[in-house]
Design goal:
By secondary structure, this protein is α/β, with parallel strands linked by helices. The protein has helices spanning 49-62, 79-89, 99-105, 112-120, 147-165, and strands spanning 3-10, 13-20, 23-28, 42-44, 97-98, 133-134.
Length: 187
């Protein structure tokens, strides 16, 4: 199988987008470990329609206008990995899950370590949002893009939700909407 690839300059570094004839196969980090996601040969094709659409959706995601990607995906991995990656796609924007929660969701409650390993091999970072997975204590854990980028993505999503809901800060998010016209808090 031949892959087409293109590059996208994002706020978290240059990303490499990889498409197959069946869908988006990978979104790789600038300094990604070449053994983390193994794909066949590819050719640079910056005008590939799926890569152009992926870039447009990434722009919208990073500008806060998109909270769910709508792209054809072509995952390459084991059956177990594909089940885990499908579970990642169900984590809502701005929310997080633990490895154990995902293991329970997929019907393998004792497989949290295997879920972590599959999460680490996710070829479609950001789009299949592995950055939304935390350790059981809520701690940031391994991430192919690095923990600073993981934190940046989580903070970005929280900021988008706060703005969308009219919250001033994280502390306000559970308490007070911003005053607006017609709101009882306006004076």
């Amino acid at each position: 199988m031949t892959f087409a690839f293109g590059r996208f300059a994002s706020p978290v570094g240059e990303l490499t987008m990889v498409a197959s004839e069946n869908g988006l196969a990978a979104l790789l980090w600038e300094n990604d470990d070449p053994t983390r996601v193994r794909l066949g040969r590819g050719k640079e094709a910056p005008c590939h329609p799926l890569l152009l659409e992926t870039a447009a959706q990434l722009r919208d995601y990073f500008s806060g206008r998109l909270i769910r990607f709508d792209l054809p995906l072509h995952f390459h991995g084991t059956d177990f990995q594909k089940i885990v990656w499908a579970a990642l796609l169900r984590i809502p924007f701005g929310e997080t899950r633990s490895y154990g929660e995902i293991a329970r969701e997929i019907g393998r409650p004792s497989a949290s370590r295997a879920v972590g390993a599959a999460n680490g091999r996710n070829p479609l970072s950001i789009i299949a949002p592995c950055h939304r997975v935390l350790g059981s204590s809520g701690a940031l854990t391994g991430f192919a893009g690095g923990l600073q980028i993981k934190l940046h993505l989580l903070d970005h999503e929280q900021a988008v939700l706060r703005q969308e809901r009219g919250w001033r800060t994280q502390e306000d998010s559970n308490l007070w909407p911003l005053p607006s016209e017609g709101n009882a808090l306006s004076s």
